Amino acid sequence: MNLRLVRGRTADVLFYAGIAAVVALLLKEALTNPGHWSLFFQLAVDGVTLGSVYALIAIGYSMVYGILKLLNFAHGDVYMVGAFIGYGILTLFGGAANWTIPVWLLVALMFGASMLGSGFLGVVIERFAYRPLRDAPRLAPLISALGVSFFLQNSALLLLGAQFRAYPFGLIGQGGVSIRTVFISATRIFVIAGAVVLMIVLTVFVRRSRLGKAMRATSYDREAAMMMGIDADRVIASTFFIGSALAGAAGVMFGLVFTEIFHFMGFTAGLKGFTAAVVGGIGSIPGAMLGGLLIGLGEAYATGYVSSTYQDLIVFSILIFVILVRPSGLLGTAAVQKV
Amino acid sequence: MEHGGEISPVPATPGDAAHTRIGVDDWVAEAEERQRGRGPLVRTVAAIPRPIQIVVFIAVLSLLPFVFSEGNLFRYGLFTLIYALLALGLNVSVGFAGLLDLGFIAFYGFGAYAYAILASPKYGIHWQAEIAIPVVMVGAAFLGLLLGLPSRRLLGDYLAIVTLFFGQAFVVFVNAANPKGLTGGANGIANVDPLNFFGFKLTTTRHYYWFTLIAFLLVIGALYFISESRTGRAWRSLREDPLAAEVMGMPVNRLKIMAFMFGAAIAGLTGTIFAANQTGVFPGDFDISILITIYAVMILGGLGSLIGMFIGAAVINVSYELLSGSNPNPSLGRWLFYLALITVVIARIRPWIRVAVVLAGTVAFGFAVHAIVHALEPSATSGAVTNGGSLSGVMSHWTVIPAHSGASAKYAYVGLVAAVLVLTLIKGWWRAIALIPVLYLASFVWENLLSEQPAVTRLIVFGAMLIALMAARPQGLLGTSRVEIA
Amino acid sequence: MKRRSALVAALVAMVAAVVAVVATSATAKSSAPAAASSASRSLVSCKRGATIGLAAPITGPAASLGQPQRRWARFFVTRWNAKHKKFKITMTEGDTQLPNVAEATKVAQSFASNSKILGVVGPAGSQEVVATTPILKGAGLAYVSGSATRTTLTDGSRSGFFFRVVPPDAVQGPTVARFIVNKLKKKNVLIIDDQETYSTGLAADAEGTLKNLGATVSRDSVSQQASDFSALISRIPGSVQVVYIPWQLPPKAQLFAQQMREQGKRQILLSSDGTFDPTTYKPAQEAYASNFPVSAKSPLIASYKRSHGGQPDFFGAPTYAAAQTVATAVAKACANGSASRAEVRANIRKSNIPPAASVIGLRIKFTARGDLNGGRFGLFKVTNGNYTPVG
C-alpha cells in the first residue's frame, strides 16, 4: 500500500518546493525587517537553543517508540523530574543565590544527578507500568503512560508545591559572545554545545557498542532479536535509561537557560518533543535531533517574523506539510507494511 | 451490546495463551482467555437475557434524578453521560476503524461553539434546538470530512500527529486568533440559550440529564446497528488489517472518512448539550486534558465495545468526583481510602488465612507503633486528624499523627510508592508479611499528607488507578478485540 | 434476526418511556424555581460554627495561582478559629482546575447542593464567574472573588450575588495608561498579553486609554504556558519605549525581564498586580507594577510570611479579604443561631471592613453591583525586589 498522499515525484517536487518557499520567505523577511540580518541571526540563536532542548526530549520519545512502538506520554514528566533534581542539587549546595562549590563542579553534579535520577526513574516506569503490558493491545500502555504522567505531575505538586522554582540566571557566567550585533550568552553556548556532545556520544554508542547494536536489532524485530540470544528486557530497560537520562539533561539545560521550572512544565515540552520525534521520523535518532532543531527554529522565526500569537499554528502547519509530503518523517524509514 | 461476542473463536492449541506466540492471532488468544477468565459476577450478568439487561439499565439510569440531588446529578450523572457520549464518538474512529484520532475534542469544541454562535445574544441569533442540533451535527460531520481528506492516507502515529495539530489549532483559533471577535477569545461566549425544543426549554439539570440520556440511548442504538451493518464490519476489517481490507476491494478511503464524520457528528451533538448546559463556551474546556479523559474512558471501557463506553465513563467520572475535596462530607475520602486498601488486600491475597493474618497484623502493628512512638516522643502523636468524621477517633489512636509532620510525611510518601512497587515483585507469605508495615505506612501518609490535599490526591490516585487497571485488564473492562495500528 | 427485532423493540420502548418521564416532569417543572429560591431562604442551624466554600484552581496548569489563594484562605480560617472559639469556620475546598471551566461548574454544583455552605470564596477566573453564575445564583449563594477582574462581571446581572475585593480592569488598565503617558512621558507602548482572560481584559482597557491619550500602541500576545520569550524580545523594535506585560505569573515576567536584559533591550517594563511578587519578580531594569494599595509592611502580611517560609504570596492576599468578607457576614447572620444564604448575601452587601483590617489596604465596602467602593490601584517602582509606591 502506498502511504503517500501525493506520490513519487510529485511529493519530492512539493517537498523541495516547500523548502525553497520557506527559505525564500525567510530571506525576504531577513532583508525587509528593520533588524535585517542581526534579527535573523538572533532568532537563529533563540531557535537553536530551544531546539536543542526539544531534540534531547525527542530522542527519548523516538528511542522508546523505535523499540516498543509505544508513545511514552510520561516522558515529558521525566524531563520535569530531571529539572527538579538539578534544582535539588543546587539547593543542596547553598541555593540559587550563593552556591558553595565551584560552578563547574556544581553544574557537573546537577547534570550527573539529574541524568542518573531520571534514567533510574525511566527504568522504574518501564518495569512497573509498561512491562506487564508488553503483549497487550497497542493503546493499553498509552493509558498507563497517561496514568504515570498524572502520577508524576501531581506527586511533584504534592511534594514540591505549585510555585515556580528558579535556577539562577546566568549560572554558567553572565558574559557571552558578541558577533557584531548578535549576542550569544555563555549559558546558551554551553547548552547548545552540551546537547551536541550528548547527541554525538549517543550516536557513537548506538552505532558502535554491543548494547547499541542490540538496541537496533531489537527495534528492528524484537522476536528475531530474542531468538538471536538478545535479552530484550535488558535492552528495553537500557533504552529507557538512556532516553530518560537525556530528558533529565534536557530538564537541567532548560533550567539553566529559561530558569523557571514547575510541576506542569513537562506537558507542553512533552508535546513538542513528540512532535519533533514524529517530524524527524519516529524511531530515528538523527531524525529526532533534526526534528527538535526544526521546531525550535520554526517557533523562533514564526514569533520573530509573524507573531507569537500564531506561533504554534505556523509551526504545526509546516509540520503537517512535512508529514504530507514525507509521510514517514524527514529521516524515518518508509513504513513497510508487513503482510 | 458487546459486539463481537457471537463470533466463535477459532480453537487454538490449548495452553499456549500465556506465551508470546509467533504467528498465532492475538485476537484469537484473547477471545479464548475471555471465555475462561470470566468471573462469577460477569457470568451471572451475562446469563440474564439481553432485553432485560437493557430494560434494567435504562430504567435505573432514567430514575437517577429522583434519587440524586441537583448537584450530584450534575456531577455524577450528567457528566458521566457526556463523557460516555464523547467516548462513543471517539470509539467510532479509534475503536471501530482503528484510526488514532487525537483531534477529536475539536469536534466537541466545534459543536459547542457553533451552538453558542447560533443561540446566544452574541449575534442576536436564537435558533431552536431542533434546528440547531441537526445543523451543528452536519457541520461537525463536514469538519470531520475536511480532516479526513488529508488524513486518509496517513497511518498510525502520523495520523495521530496531524489530528493532534487539528485539536491544538482549534484551541488556538478560538482563543488567541479569534477572527473578528467571532469566538470571544479567552472570554468565550456567555449567556448561551438553553436547549429549546419547539418552545419547551430545558432549564434544570434534570432536563439536561434526561435529554442527554435520550441522546446517549439513540446514539448507542444507532451505533449498534451500524457496527453490525456492512459498514461496521468493513470498519472492523479495516482496523484489523487495512491492507487486507484494501485487497478485498473495500473502499478504504471512504470508510476512513465516514468514521471521522460519524465520530465528529456525535461529538458535535455532545458539544451542543455541553454548551447549552454550561450556558457558555470557553477555550479552556476543549484543551488536551479532556481528550486525555476521553481516551482513558474509551480504553478503560474497552475499545470497540459500546456499553463499555458507559461503564468506562462511570468508573472514571464517579471515582474522580468521589475523591473531590468539595464533597459535603470530607471524611468520605478517608472511608473510601481505607475501604479500598481492605478491598485490595481481600482481592489480591489468597488464601483466606493470609488475609486474616494481614488484617489482624496491621491492626496490632499500628497500635504497637503508636504506643512505642508515644512513649518515646509524646508530641509525635499529638496531631489532630484533618477532616474529622466518624473514623477520626480510631485513627488518632492508631496512626502516628505528629503535630507538625513536616518533611517526614513527604519522605514517607516516596517510601510508600517504592514499597508498593517492591510488593508487586514478591510473592506468597513474604508478600503478606511485608504488606503489614506497608498498609500502616499508607495510613500514615494518608493522615499526614494526602488528606490535607484532596485535590492533588485525587489526581494521584487517578493516575495510579489507570496504571493498575491497565496492568490488570489491558483490553479494558469490556474490551473484546484487539486494535493494531500499524 | 429475531434477537435483533427484540432489541429494537426494547430500545424503542425504553426511549419512549424516558421521553414520557421527561414529559411528566416537564409539567411539574414549576417546582424547580421554587426549590432554588427555597435553598436561598432555608435556614441552616449554625450556633457553634458554619461552613463556607472555596473555589480555586488547586491543581493543573494554574495551580501556582490557586495554591497561594488557598494558603491565604486557610490562613484566614486558622486565624479566625484561633480568635473565635465559639464560632468556628469550616472551609470546603473545590478544585476548579483553571482553564477547564467545566470543573468550576462541577464545584459550584457541589456547593449549591450542599445546604451547609452559606457563602463561597471565589471562583478565581472571570470566565469561571460567568459559567458558575447560573448555578450559584440559582442556589442563592453569594460568591466573593479575590481575582476575577473582568470589568463586565459587575454589569448588574449578578448584583447582590457576586462581589469582588479587587478593583476591575477598568480601574487598573487606565491607571497604568495614565501613568505611562502623564508621569513617564512615554508615547510608544507595546502591550503583550498572555492569552488568558485576566490579561486580555487588562490589555484591552489599557490600550483604549493609551490611544485616547495619543500614544502609539502595538499589541502582541504569548501563551501563558510559553517558557521562552527570546524570539519575541528579539523583534521588539527600538522605537518602543515601554513594554506593558499585564501577566498573571510573576516568574514568567521575571524571565521576560531577564531575557530583555540578555539581549540588551532597554525599554521600561510595566506590569500588573498579577506580577506583584517581591520574592520572584525583581527585574534589574527600570520597572513598575500596579497593585491595589497593599502595604508590604502590614502586620498581617508579616505574620503570613512568618508561617509560610517568607513567601508573601501577594496574589492570594485578596482571597484572604474575600474569605474575611464571607466569614464576617456568615457570623453576623448566625448571631441568632441560624442563617440563610439570603441573609449572608444581604450582610455581604452591607460589609464594612476598615483598610487596616483588610489585607488589601482598601476598605471593603461594596457598590450595588458588587464592586469595591472607591477601589483604586497604585503604581509601584520595582527596584531589586523593593516595591515603592510612586503614584
Describe this structure in words.
The complex is a heterotrimer of chains A (339), B (486) and C (391). In chain A, 72% of the residues lie in helices and 4% in strands. With 339 residues, chain A is mainly alpha-helical. Chain A has a domain of 235 residues. Chain A is globular. With 486 residues, chain B is mostly helical. In chain B, the strands form 3 sheets. A two-stranded antiparallel ribbon of chain B has the order 1-2. Chain B is globular. The N terminus of chain B is likely disordered. By secondary structure, chain C is of the alpha/beta class. Chain C has 2 domains: 177 residues, Rossmann fold (3-Layer(aba) Sandwich); 122 residues, Rossmann fold (3-Layer(aba) Sandwich). Chain C is 43% helix and 17% strand. In chain C, the strands form 3 sheets. Chain C has a 7-stranded mixed β-sheet. A 5-stranded parallel β-sheet of chain C has the order 3-2-4-5-6, with helices on both faces. In chain C, strands 1-12 form a two-stranded antiparallel sheet. In chain C, α5 links the parallel β4 and β5. In chain C, α4 runs parallel beside α5 and α11 packs across α12. The termini of chain C are far apart. The chains are: A mainly alpha (339), B mainly alpha (486), C alpha/beta (391).
Let me know the average pLDDT of chain B. 84
Number of domains of chain B: 3
Mean pLDDT of chain A: 88
Uncertain runs of chain A with pLDDT below 50, 5 residues or more? Answer: 1-5
Total strands of chain A: the figure is 4
Alpha carbon gyration radius of chain A: 20 Å
Structural class of chain B: mainly alpha
**Estimated share of beta-strand residues of chain A:** under 5%
- Which H/E pattern describes the elements of chain B? HHHHHEEHHEEEHHHHEHHHHHHHH
Tell me the number of helical segments of chain B per DSSP (H or I, 4 or more residues long): 19
The run of helices and strands of chain A is: HHHHHEEEHHHHEHHH
Largest sheet of chain B: 2 strands, antiparallel
